[in-house]
Predict the structure.
Amino acid sequence: PTPVCLTEEQVLSLGISAADLHALALANLEATLPGVQRHGDGGAELLACGGGFETSLLLFHETWEAIAEEISGDVVACAPARDRVLFTGSAVPGGVERLRAAAEKILQTHAEPVSGTLLRWTGSGWQPWSS
């Protein structure tokens, strides 16, 4: 599907709040995604969902809430390419270093690099990771 961009005036004309529109967009996105799969050994892991929408997985709070309950320390993630979302726990021995190394390799070799910025899950969203 082709993404649609709306102006602020168009959003207002819909008679729906920005928060409700955001929730609707996430629900529509979730309905189009194939099943999300988790790969890895607990050190640095990968989420996959068909190869084109992985970066959008950062938007799904429920996914990260569930991961946060299972992982050691804070969830640290990055999206080095459109089809790659990597994560680890801040308290996993060597996890952040493995995450950085994997992200750098992807950024250097992938045809569609996105960002090597590491992010920390706060429970309500993402913040830049600093360590």
Summary: The beta strands are 37-40, 45-48, 75-81, 84-89, 119-121, 126-128. The first helix runs from residue 8 to 13. The CA atoms of residues 67 and 92 lie 13 Å apart. The chain has a mean pLDDT of 89.
